[in-house]
Design brief:
Radius of gyration: 17 Å
Largest sheet: none
Number of strands: 0
Strand content: under 5%
Distance between the termini: 63 Å
Mean pLDDT: 95
Shape: elongated
Order of helices and strands: HHH
Length: about 100
């Protein structure tokens, strides 16, 4: 019988999958299989997914009163960083779209 993974293990696995997906999306963009808009949009979505994983860990750490506050702050900073990256990539995707539309017009 296997033991159930901890929240930290689940989050770590989720973050690893997101990192792998970002590498794959960038490789597809490098091969020309994605437009710049699709690439930036995918990266925005993957960074948003990272933020959701960090939020899962944040909820678990806040509920565990034995976790030092500095650890909770670090998790919160990681979540904020991922949200910021997601917003930046979403803005970049919108800029790529505007540029593409301007070229066509």
């Amino acid at each position: 019988m296997s033991t159930r993974p901890t929240t930290a293990e689940l989050v770590h696995a989720g973050l690893r999958r997101c990192a792998a997906a970002r590498r794959e999306v960038s490789a597809r963009y490098d091969r020309g299989a994605l437009t710049a808009t699709e690439w930036a949009g995918a990266l925005a979505a993957l960074h948003a997914r990272d933020a959701r994983w960090w939020a899962v860990l944040a909820r678990a750490t806040v509920a565990d009163h034995s976790v030092p506050v500095v650890y909770i702050a670090a998790v919160s900073d990681a979540e904020a960083g991922a949200l910021h990256a997601a917003a930046d990539w979403a803005r970049t995707a919108r800029e790529y779209t505007r540029t593409a539309v301007a070229r066509v017009a």
